[in-house]
Amino acid sequence: MIVPAVTCYGDGNGNTLIPHEMKKNRENGIAMFLLKKSFLYLSALFVCIFAISAGLCARETNVVKLAAFNYPPFYYEKDNMVQGIAVELVDELFSRMNMKLEIKIYPLKRALKNLKTGRHDAIMILIKTPEREQYLSYTSPVVTVRGLIWWAADRKGAGIEFERLEDLTPFRIGVTRGYSYGVEFDNLLKKMTVEVVNSNASNFKKLLWHRIDAFPCNEIVAKGIFKNNKAFEGKFVHSKKAFIEWVLHMAISKKSGLTDKIDEINSIIDDFKKEGFINNTVKKYTED
User: Fold this and answer.
1) Which helix (H) or strand (E) holds 281?
2) Residue 288's pLDDT band (boundaries 50, 70, 90)?
């Protein structure tokens, strides 16, 4: 029997290889080469992705997302732009910090929810409450505003002055839906004749029409309304005594990196006060 001859080759290491083994080794070598090349490509790709992501993150951390709510003259929309006292304050604040600013108006409850989840970084002009302190960090006070009792200047009878809140119980009071007037006043309102409307301006109209006797309102808010409604000028009188003083802060989500900058923010707020910037901005929106 004749056996076909098979040519054998060495692998250079003293080992003898037959052709099919050489083919297998060659295929394995090609596979390893492609695997190494793929690994290098993937490594380079991951490096690029990381670099791009790092760059984007760097840019994003330089942008502050501010939540706002419709509360003229602190916040309001005009010509598709958010304007007001608070807007001018935060514009200047973050300009001094070399940070960009994005502002969007929501209903107050949604604005607070966005802060709680970290979707937004901060809100300017907010009252501190124990519930909110669970998810918000506060700056030093920005402005303190008086809550006053307002009535129509042509109202018959004496003005509506008071020593204690209970002195207001005989009067028909107008309130704005969703607003709090402080725990003590809120509790008293449950025992009073109260009419609820959707806006502060509507309550002032009801005072003019003598449908209500009195309306509790933030002094800055009231004066802002009068400035933008010439028909209201000189038509209202307010109590000498405040029923509350609201201390308004900038509030920062505890999920925001902006909390690390509270000391810097407080320093700028102090500068604002020394420069008269806050008072001048308030006057711009409340006085002629």
Assistant:
1) helix 277-286
2) confident
> According to the model, what pLDDT value does residue 53 have?
43
3-state secondary structure of 283: helix
Report CA torsion sign: 98, 260, 116, 179: negative
- What separation in angstroms does the CA of 12 have from each of 9, 15, 19? 9, 7, 15
CA distance linking residue 115 with residue 113, whole number of Å: 5
Domain 63-142+249-286 coded CATH 3.30.70.260: no
pLDDT tens for each residue of 246-269: 999 999 999 999 999 999 999 999
Q: Report the CATH number of the 144-245 domain.
A: 3.40.190.10
Secondary structure (DSSP) of 204-269:
HHHHHTTS-SBEEEEHHHHHHHHHH-GGGTT-EEE-SS-SEEEEEEEEEETTSGGGGGHHHHHHHH
The answer to whether the beta carbons of residues 254 and 213 sit under 8 Å apart is: no
Domain ranges of the chain: 18-59, 63-142+249-286, 144-245
Give the confidence band of 157 by pLDDT, cuts at 50, 70, 90: confident
Fold matches, 63-142+249-286 and 144-245 = yes
- Degrees to nearest 5, angle at CA 126 with 223 and 261: 125
**Has residue 52 got a pLDDT over 60?**
no
* Residue 213 pLDDT greater than 90, yes or no: yes
